[in-house]
Write a structure and sequence with these properties.
heterodimer, A: alpha/beta, Rossmann fold, UDP N-Acetylglucosamine Acyltransferase, domain 1, 2 domains, six-stranded parallel sheet, 17% helix, globular, B: 96 residues, mainly alpha, Non-ribosomal Peptide Synthetase Peptidyl Carrier Protein, Chain A, 49% helix
């Protein structure tokens, strides 16, 4: 059994804990040995039967046979996730990718380390999902999509062919994204939106048709890395 | 019709759909966006949609209010009713 440490004791912990239980029902593969969180009020408390053993920086103290699950993230913290990952300086292959048994990932789709794919989601052929992406329940990721590092996708999202979702962006539940559209890195697409045009980096959009309501400055490094990532794939 | 009045009429229409505690006041200082605003994001979208419809009725032209240009400004036009009045007046003057 692979030993797992969950980084984050918020809502995502419960989703991931349940996901691991479902995977283990099919074939026992994972054992949670600890939970880490920076909230001092949670330290030494138990979530389910798992103890919160300290701050997230403690991850570096675990031996190499221990894998991690990155369970931090909401629309508010979408960019902070990058800061936390940089701070940890752990190689990406120390992060396990979890795919729910009811999810379908096409054999020629690619998913990198540290991703979470929840119940009932489908990732169609030739799509590429970079590390630390979370795809919540019942999403349909269309053909040939590119999803950048650390993107957070809510439930019931439908993307059509050739969509690109930028690094550390957040797409709320029940959004639909039209063919070939690009969600910029760090953008926030509010729940239920229908995206028929490209969304620039850091923009907060909502509605159908979408309204542009706000923007957040996205670190240059995230934008450059996203562009490089796309260019490398398209070579 | 003055834009300020057009926005107040739009607020009346929106307020009819809101709980009493969530209704917004009709004055230039009322905040429309952010943690101190009474409006949540989806209600702001609703208000913008109503305003766009009323502007189209008044000026016979659809003028998008919440697009990329709105965020190219140093201060968001959605901060308050005052900033929104100024922004819409600018957009309309450009069309004349």
């Amino acid at each position: 059994m692979k030993k797992l440490v969950i980084l984050g004791a918020g809502n995502a912990f419960w989703e991931i804990s349940e996901l691991i239980k479902d995977i283990n029902k099919i074939k026992p593969q994972f054992k949670i040995i600890a939970v880490l969180d920076d909230n001092v009020e949670l330290i030494n408390k138990k979530l389910d039967q798992f103890e919160v053993k300290g701050s997230i920086d403690k991850a570096k103290e675990f031996p190499p046979d221990v894998q991690f699950i990155f369970a931090i993230g909401s629309y508010k913290t979408r960019l902070i996730r990058k800061t936390i990952l940089d701070r940890l300086k752990l190689p990406e292959n120390r992060f396990e990718t979890l795919i729910h048994p009811s999810a379908k990932v096409f054999s020629n789709a690619k998913i990198s380390s540290g991703c979470i794919v929840h119940y009932g989601s489908i990732i169609f052929n030739h799509s590429i999902v970079d590390s630390f992406t979370t795809i919540s329940a019942n999403c349909v990721i269309g053909v040939g999509n590119i999803i950048g590092k650390g993107a957070l996708l809510g439930s019931n999202i439908t993307t059509t062919t050739g969509v690109k979702i930028g690094s550390f962006s957040f797409v709320g539940s029940s959004c639909s994204i039209a063919e070939g559209k690009v969600i910029g890195p760090g953008a926030y697409v509010g729940m239920g939106s229908t995206v028929f045009k490209d969304i620039p980096p850091g923009f907060f959009v909502l509605g159908n048709p979408i309204k542009v309501l706000d923007k957040t400055e996205v670190p240059q490094k995230i934008k450059v890395d996203w562009e490089d990532y796309i260019q490398n794939i398209l070579k | 019709m003055k834009i300020e009045q057009l926005i107040y009429d739009s607020i009346d229409e929106l307020n009819e759909t809101l709980e009493i505690d969530n209704r917004i006041e009709k004055n230039l200082g009322t905040l429309l966006f952010g943690s101190e605003s009474n409006l949540d994001s989806i209600d702001l979208v609703g208000l913008i949609t109503i305003i766009e419809e009323r502007v189209e009725e008044e000026f016979n032209e659809y003028i998008p209010i919440a697009d990329e240009r709105a965020l190219s400004l140093t201060n968001s036009p959605f901060n308050s009713i005052s900033t929104l009045v100024n922004y819409i007046e600018t957009l309309i003057n450009e069309k004349r």
